[in-house]
């Protein structure tokens, strides 16, 4: 018993040393304040569970511990043949990927409690919000000269810029995010997908003629620049005209005109441009960001996540430029083993599949708080939800976020945050949030 205890202390001490080195390496600070032994053992428990989870669910992927409790390396079997080449330098994609569990836990938790839709109150609240931020969201923005004429700028954004968030955290219970991978045609997921409370799709993904595989329901659609330019075509993909279209890049100069004149009846919004600093790129992770910010649980379909799948076609067309598929697969596996998403694919087609060795809620919670402290996130480990706000602004009277007929979970969250809306801030404002609070 005594030796065990001593062993633990030594392990913790060396772990602390490793983390200290890591922290000084990344932030130039001198020491870690408020990180306790409990925090370190929480991170240790997380990493132990995480490795087992990846082994049990990753179809050949292995997680190996790195230089401290936050770092893990996800490795593919050595006989994996990478096929994707970086067009910039012609290099083949590697077989191992370094991921930071602490950063992922803290960052995705922040996503879950924030608004990810761009609003007018957000731009108004930022110092130089119009001059520095708004005009960059409009294609040919340079002609607008930093929104010198704010009226003109507001006009361009008016139809896609709500005053307050149209959606709130936990608004939906079970959500499905549908990627465009060709392997969707291998399984009839359609009925299953239609059983979710909200379904998220991407770009020009068709529904008609493919419902057996991809379902009919479509609640949100995230658009890149190319799809946004063809907004009228995209709006035709969903017959209900209720699908919410969310543009993740800049809007076209003539977007408002197009919405008014075509006319496009679907609600259209912009995704908040702030990067949460996660290492994930592309439309897929952005759609997950949106889904996790308004859903209790998120399941994914149609992402290329099975070993041996290297056709990289879309389910509706032959060609595809696909990028970093092995990195993507590793990143999604990490998300699954952190309890953020559940993966469905031809090789994981059993709807009732259990994610084995998923670290339990208490481990995830303790490790998340420890991560926030390590990363010096504003409000780490504090009970007051507003302690994460590095900027607090009172919301204009009479302007209230969406809130009719909300689910109990969403209402409870609103109570927890005392009616505040939290928006992520760019890194140069620190790691905190902008909070719009009731007057
Ligand atoms: C600013 O833009 C508005 C709307 O297009 C226009 O009516 C107004 O004349 C512009 N003001 C200036 C000073 O250019
Ligand atoms: C579905 O198939 C029909 C008949 O082949 C075709 O006319 C239609 O354009 C297809 N729809 C989509 C969205 O591809
Ligand atoms: C979570 O897992 C840890 C370690 O496996 C265990 O000690 C703890 O009792 C579990 N907590 C719950 C609530 O199941
Ligand atoms: C996010 O909100 C939940 C309540 O819905 C709360 O338990 C959790 O601590 C919050 N996370 C952060 C980082 O504020």
From TrEMBL:
A GO MF term: sialyltransferase activity
Main location: Golgi
Subcellular location: Golgi apparatus membrane
Membrane topology: Single-pass type II membrane protein
Protein name: Sialyltransferase-like protein 4
Organism encoding this protein: Elaeis guineensis var. tenera
UniProtKB keywords: Glycoprotein, Glycosyltransferase, Golgi apparatus, Membrane, Signal-anchor, Transferase, Transmembrane, Transmembrane helix
Domain of life: Eukaryota
A Gene Ontology cellular-component term: Golgi membrane
InterPro entries: Glyco_trans_29, GT29-like_sf
